[in-house]
Amino acid sequence: MTRNLTFIRGLAVAGAAGLLLTGCGGNEPPVPGENGTNNPDGGDSSGSSSYGVMAEWDGCEALDDVQAVQDFMGVTDWGTNGIMSSDIPGGLDGEAFNCGGAANLAVYLMENEVTGDKEIPGTANIDVGVAPWESDSEAAENFQERVDQLKEAIETGGTEYSNVQEGEIEGDWDGSYYYAGASNTGFNADAIAYKGDLVLYVFIDYTTDPAVQDGADPVYPFTDESIVDWMLNDYMPTTYSDLLAKKESGL
C-alpha cells in the first residue's frame, strides 16, 4: 500500500519571502489496516507502524512547538499568523505533520540622528515536518522523492548560493541529505533524513543579521556555521529519538 508525494515545503529555494510547493500527487493517505494488509518490512497495518501510530498526530504537539529551534535561534515571536501546526493531511505537505511558520528574531537598533532610531528585526521561516509510513521501503522511496524534488528546485529556483555545504548527514540514518548556503539576502539550510519507516525534515531560512548588514556587532545568537552543525548533529537526532519515545507511549 503506497501513498504518492503531494507537497513538500522547500524553504531553501523560496527564501524568506515564501514557500516552495513542488510535486503534485493526489492520493489520500491510506487508512491503517485497510483491507487487512500487512507490511513485511515495517510492521503491520494494525498500528505498530509509524503511520499506524502517528496518523492523527498534531504537528506542534508532537514536535513540542519546535521549542529547541526557537531557543537556539532566539525567536522573539511568530508575527501576526502565530506558530502554525498541521496534521496529516491538513497542511501544505499532505503526508506529514508540521510545525513552524514565519518568526521574528533579534532586533537591531539602528541609530540615526537625522531620521531617528529604527528597530530592525531579523526574520526566519522555520518548517519541521515528519512523514510516517507503514513500511521501511515506503519511507525510503518517499525520502528519495523528496530529495530529488529539493535538488531540482534548488537547480531551477534562480537563486545563487555561496559557501555551499551539501551531502549526507553523519549519524545513524538509513538515508540523509542536506543543502545549506548563503544568498544575497540571508542563509538557507534544508535537511531530509529517514530511518526505518519515518521521514524527518527541517527547513530553515533567515535574513542576514541586520546588525551585521549595518557594520555592527551581530545580534543573532548563532552563526551560519553553528546553525548547520546544531541542526544536523543535535536537533535532528534528538527530535527523531523523542518521536520514537512518543510513539512507544502513544503520545
From TrEMBL:
Region of interest: Disordered: 27-51
Domain of life, per lineage: Bacteria
Record field: compositional bias (Low complexity): 33-50
Name of the protein this chain belongs to: Lipoprotein
